[in-house]
Design a protein that fits this description.
Layout lengths: L1 E4 L3 E4 L5 H10 L2 H7 L7 H11 L9 E5 L5 E10 L6 E8 L8 H16 L4 E6 L4 H9 L3 E7 L6 E8 L2
Helix pairs in contact: 1-3
Length: 170
């Protein structure tokens, strides 16, 4: 199911066929994993388990597939995630791109579409973005989307310590 589209990208739900591509391009790439999951590269079995347990196969909210419109090539995963880092229900934008798709404007493009989705479809008053303090490229992208640093939090998932950035819509 298509969740949202941009000029060049589609955000869609997962299928079991996506696991192999994401394993090769994301989960076993040290440069991607160190800023996103904060641990060692995933084995194929760990990748499969992570995707089956954490990714979106049927809804509009959750970690989903990002693919290029013109080629249907999977470039990463991302999506709008429900969260409670500020002690209330909020929505977080997110994107994890395969290294070969870095520095092409895809993160900003999908990030803006996620912001619009949170504001227009979910009618939320703000959006959050969580990022590793050392991930300067992602920080630059989320700042260019209008987010401002709020605080650091300790997450309960594998990401551990993250900086929270906030974008208020009002």
């Amino acid at each position: 199911m298509t969740i949202l589209t941009t000029k060049r990208l589609i955000l869609r739900t997962f299928t079991k066929l996506d696991i192999d591509t994401l394993y090769e391009d994301v989960f076993k790439c040290s440069d991607v994993v160190k800023y996103t999951f904060g641990n060692e590269n995933f084995s194929y079995e760990q990748t499969k388990n992570f995707i089956n347990n954490n990714c979106n196969f049927k809804d509009k909210i959750g970690l989903s597939i990002i693919e290029k419109k013109d080629t249907n090539e999977i470039i990463g995963l991302g999506g709008v995630l429900q969260c409670e880092y500020l002690d209330e229900i909020d929505y977080e934008i997110g994107f994890i791109l395969a290294k070969r798709f870095w520095k092409k404007g895809f993160a900003k493009e999908i990030g803006q579409a996620q912001i619009d989705f949170i504001k227009d479809k979910l009618k939320a008053k703000k959006a959050l973005a969580l990022v590793d303090t050392n991930n300067t490229a992602s920080i630059k992208t989320i700042k260019s989307l209008g987010f401002n640093y709020l605080k650091s939090v300790k997450t309960t998932d594998s990401r551990k310590q993250r900086d929270v950035y906030i974008l208020n819509f009002q």
